[in-house]
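Suppose a colleague, Dr. K., hands you the sequence of a protein chain of 254 amino acids and asks what its three-dimensional shape might be. Before reaching for any lab equipment, you can write down a predicted structure in token form. Begin with the sequence itself:
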Amino acid sequence: MNQNQLTQSDYGECPVCHGTGWETYYATVYDYGLPEEIQYARRCPKCKGGYRAQDRTGVPKEYHDADLGKFDFDIYQRDMSKLRDLCTTFLNHFQKWEMAGKGLYLWSKTPGSGKTFLACCLAKSVMMKYDLQMRFVTAPDYISAVGDSYKRDRGEEDPSQVYRDCKLLVLDDIGAQADKEWQRQEMFRLINKRMEDGNITIYTSNMSTDNLNVDTRTRDRIIKTCVELQMPEEGIRKKKAAGEQRQFLASVMG
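The predicted structure, expressed as tokens, is then:
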């Protein structure tokens, strides 16, 4: 099996979902106004993800069941139809994006605007549809993993290598890493290696590429390999939390 495909080291085993923890299903979406049936994933109805020995994708626990069908584009006040179409195209025609070496750069200044959730929804859907290796890591945690690799004994596995090699990477919160020279160099090494290998990256950030605290070489490579999109400056996390609270209260109070 190709090293960029899902392996037993990524998931456990289940007779229905074969260890992925997910069952595929299909839904009709509109790609540039035309109906198209695409494949999504949902938690396995038999094991409900219970057979997963360890989810090594790194996706935050709250987003483990994320897929594009769960992202609510209508929660925003702004019309999100164009972004919805682009995300659908990214999923349906991922091979074309891959051939062009293009990922996404999702940013907004407002915390809780949904950029990390959208990145996870896209990445998980692509992972399941194309059976490829995906990883999620925040920029500070990647730097921490690189630092740990310096301390490892000879012959031990480099914990940061998978982020340079995986087919699809969500690099969350780039710009939040400390701004030291060795960290700038390591961020360049990651992004340059992924560009040279043709591996796709989805970035999230609180700043545009113009203001990103990386060196010029790194910024140029991000711009070259990504479509930059500004998310709405709306804090939807609080809005979703309020809705969940209302549903919970309604359920316990009848």
